[in-house]
Amino acid sequence: MALVLGLYLGTLLHFHYAQPAADSLTRPRVLLFKKEQIGLFVISPADWLMYRAGYTLFVTESEGFERVLGIGEVLIFLDDKNVQLLVRERAAGADDIWTSLD
To answer: How far apart, in Å, are the Cα atoms of 76 and each of 50, 57, 65, 80, 82?
Structure first.
């Protein structure tokens, strides 16, 4: 009985400490946008970004809603800790936002 209780408590503690709280995640900010083939962002650092990982790009509109811009991939971590994010694919229906960025 004590062994089962120990395994149960150990599992609960593992899940509690393994997942960061949603409010502790840092949101990267766009520092620079360069129009190259599809696009290249320089964004502020965030500890959860990984090299060559894909991320969905969103923009917050004035009403509080978010619109999908496309899919990006972490290309390079710069010496100043900022991150280059290459846009792999632009979302359909977001052409007006991409035009304003261009």
So the answer is: 10, 17, 30, 11, 9
